[in-house]
Amino acid sequence: MRLRSRLGTLDRRVFTAVAGARLPGLERLMPGLSRAADHSLLWAGVAGGCALSGHVSLRRAATRGMIAIGVASPTVNLVCKRLFGRSRPSLDGFPLARLIRVPTSTSFPSGHAASAAAFATAVAMEAPLLVTAPVALLAAAVCFSRVYTGVHYPGDVFAGAGIGMAAGVLTGRLWPVRHGEYIRETAPGTVINPAEDD
User: Fold this and answer.
1) In the chain, N or C terminus with fewer CB closer than 10 Å?
2) Domain span holding position 117
3) pLDDT band at 19 (very low <50, low <70, confident <90, very high)
4) Which letter does DSSP use for residue 55 in this model?
């Protein structure tokens, strides 16, 4: 019980430091990014770009990413939030310029963080580093935005991200991963592997 109290105190202190900070350039960027991730629209857009790339591995990554979100999102929003029922942070005294509409759902864990981590983890299982790295950075930025805009405690975000990562890994159990392949489609029914080119 004492450990739980200490963790709660630390969680609130970190929230106060992050949500109360004024970081040049992020006052408008973070709220916009946070809103873009509503209902996983941001990830659907990224998945669409991957699907249209012409690379089989990126299409697989896009599909795996959306499947992972399909596991993580209902787990968080329909099960975990109802079990824990944590209230949203109080925003009294925080910068008004970056505030976004506070969701009516409970705070723990973060659904945005779960979807972001689920998508990034799943994409990393199929896509090359050139794609995986920016997707991971975008997911991390979405997670940070949820604290910076004042709608989640850091603990909510870490818990949501953990669930999302687990959902991403779970897709590997349900659908085998093609390791080390970056295949480009050249004609209907024909693919080449760049690694085999002379």
Assistant:
1) C
2) 41-86+102-187
3) confident
4) B
